[in-house]
Q: What sequence folds into this?
């Protein structure tokens, strides 16, 4: 150990302590930023695979034994202009981020207060849709939906048959509702009630709803699923987010267009 007096180096001096502290911080920040940059493509790939898996699940097609991207081969991803219901060709469906776009000027719009029943404030002008194809014909249209529950924003996918009205399935993949209460929205016994239900009434008005208690027999039952015991506020959130996204400010124009095409084709 060199003698401190001879070298003039004091390990306890303020300047040396600062040099070491700054040096360690610099090295650590370089390491953390490099890791973030190196891992970003991997994170994006994982997110993409996760989203594809949920889409396959809501379509009833997910097979855990087969790679997700292979199973996704029969699913087309398209971008829709929500106002017109038409496809947009000049936006890359693989990289389009609807949530980020919602907050960008020109790419996002504020939702008028009287229409914002899902309580999300803004949405992107465009939205992705996932179309399950078989022998060149669409079998299901899978739509991203989101809206406020009690504690959190609920993110999910609603799958609709080619008639644009019959539910094929519903899945939520992200929320922070209470385990045992609001998280029933991701549980099978409740989700199993959705397929076959009708989103709209005869006049084309969004009618789908989660009732309080149990669905009672009657003409409205085709638009209803049972309530969530002890979690009516989350359940109401589901009603409102579904009605927003199938409504005229959501995918309403798109679903009207695809259903009229289905009618024209036979
Ligand atoms: C700690 C705590 C967590 C709760 N979490 C939820 C929830 O995630 N979703 C929900 O709708 N209600 C939740 N509630 C209950 C609501 O405050 C409210 O009582 C309930 O939604 C009413 O539904 P019910 O009429 O079916 O009982 C929670 C209550 C407490 C005390």
A:
């Amino acid at each position: 150990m060199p003698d401190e007096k001879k070298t003039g180096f004091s390990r306890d001096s303020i300047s040396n302590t600062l040099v070491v502290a700054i040096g360690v911080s610099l090295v650590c920040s370089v390491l953390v930023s490099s890791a973030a940059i190196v891992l970003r493509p991997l994170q994006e790939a994982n997110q993409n695979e996760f989203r594809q898996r949920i889409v396959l699940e809501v379509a009833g097609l997910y097979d855990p034994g087969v790679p997700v991207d292979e199973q996704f081969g029969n699913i087309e991803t398209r971008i829709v202009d929500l106002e017109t219901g038409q496809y947009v060709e000049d936006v890359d469906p693989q990289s389009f981020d609807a949530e980020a776009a919602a907050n960008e000027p020109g790419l996002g719009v504020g939702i008028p207060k009287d229409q914002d029943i899902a309580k999300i404030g803004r949405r992107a002008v465009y939205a992705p849709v996932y179309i399950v194809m078989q022998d060149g014909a669409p079998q299901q249209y899978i739509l991203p939906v989101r809206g406020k529950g009690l504690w959190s924003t609920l993110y999910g996918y609603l799958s609709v048959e080619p008639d644009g009205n019959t539910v094929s399935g519903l899945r939520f993949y992200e929320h922070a509702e209470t385990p045992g209460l609001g998280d029933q929205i991701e549980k099978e016994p409740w989700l199993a009630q959705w397929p076959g239900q009708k989103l709209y009434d005869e006049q084309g008005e969004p009618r789908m709803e989660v009732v309080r208690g149990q669905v009672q027999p009657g003409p409205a039952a085709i638009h209803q699923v049972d309530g969530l015991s002890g979690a009516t506020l989350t359940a109401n959130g589901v009603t409102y987010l579904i009605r927003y996204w199938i409504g005229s400010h959501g995918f309403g124009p798109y679903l009207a267009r695809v259903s009229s095409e289905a009618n024209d084709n036979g």
Summary: The chain has seven helices and ten strands. The CA atoms of residues 132 and 206 lie 23 Å apart.
